[in-house]
Amino acid sequence: MTDSTYNLNGGFKPTTKRFADLNGPDFFPTPAWATHALIDNESFSGEIWESACGNGAMSRVLEHASRSVISSDLYDRGYGDSGIDFLQAKRRADNIVTNPPYNAAEGFVRSGVSQAKHKFALLLRLAFLEGANRANTIFSQCPPSRVWVFSERITFYPAGAVQQGSGTTAYAWFVWDKDAPSGTELKWFKPGYKHRFN
Ligand SMILES: C[S@@+](CC[C@H](N)C(=O)[O-])C[C@H]1O[C@@H](n2cnc3c(N)ncnc32)[C@H](O)[C@@H]1O
Questions:
Q1: Binning pLDDT at 50, 70 and 90, where does residue 187 land?
Q2: 20: CA distance to ligand 1 center in Å?
Q3: Ligand 1 centroid from CA 147, angstroms
Q4: Which residues are paired to 81 by β-bridges?
């Protein structure tokens, strides 16, 4: 099975997430601990827009980091404003934080970098770092300021699925910080978030 939009330059090992990405609306709520790891290590000044909020799994944790969290999604999943396509949105926000649909990650980077006034943070596969197309576009034109690599594996389940087993894919938070000097810093989360916030 191939999907030209999923990975521009090669084959990932298929996973549950990959097949669901291809066949479904790509709704994978982020486990709370993965968002706690971000807000424990990055500060956010002003409002935060969760621009693909799903059922609010990430928005609820972001409320610990900002008094003003705006939530929207293209689909109505019972949380925030629905019918808002982030790839077309013109709204700006102090900060934008989300876990995007993976097959639209490049578009989310383009929109987020232009719409965020301070920080734009995306939860992505670590393998997003690879690929000639991204090297020639995102990483040469607007590289992230920091990449936070998880030392513990995140397991994503389609909403409503029975949770069993553990993840096989490495993830990282990619942070574009308008107030940081140019260049990309590679950082690692200390182990323990999964246990502390699960
Ligand atoms: C991987 S889920 C993550 C949900 C939530 N951010 C979280 O972390 O729990 C991706 C979400 O992106 C939404 N989505 C897909 N395309 C979108 C678009 N163009 N604009 C806004 N949201 C979109 C989906 O409906 C889905 O809820």
A1: very high
A2: 13
A3: 21
A4: 72
49 Cβ inside 6 Å of ligand 1: no
Per the DSSP assignment, residues forming a β-bridge with 116 are: 93
| 122 three-state secondary structure | strand
Query: Helix, strand, or coil here: 167?
Result: coil
Q: What does 11-32 look like in DSSP terms, one character per residue?
A: PPPP-HHHHHHHHS----PPPH
% residues pLDDT > 90 (the chain)? 78
The tens digit of pLDDT for each residue in 86-131 reads 999 999 999 999 999 988 999 999 999 999 999 999 999 999 999 9
Q: Which residue stretches of the chain are H helix?
A: 16-23, 32-41, 57-62, 105-115, 132-136, 138-141, 193-197
Domain ranges (residues) in the chain: 29-197
Nearest Cα to Cα of residue 60 among 46, 50, 51, 74: 50
With a 6 Å cutoff on the Cβ, whether 96 touches ligand 1 is: no
29 lines ligand 1 (CB under 6 A): yes
- The CATH topology of domain 29-197 is Rossmann fold (3.40.50)
- Cβ(145) – ligand 1 distance below 6 Å: no
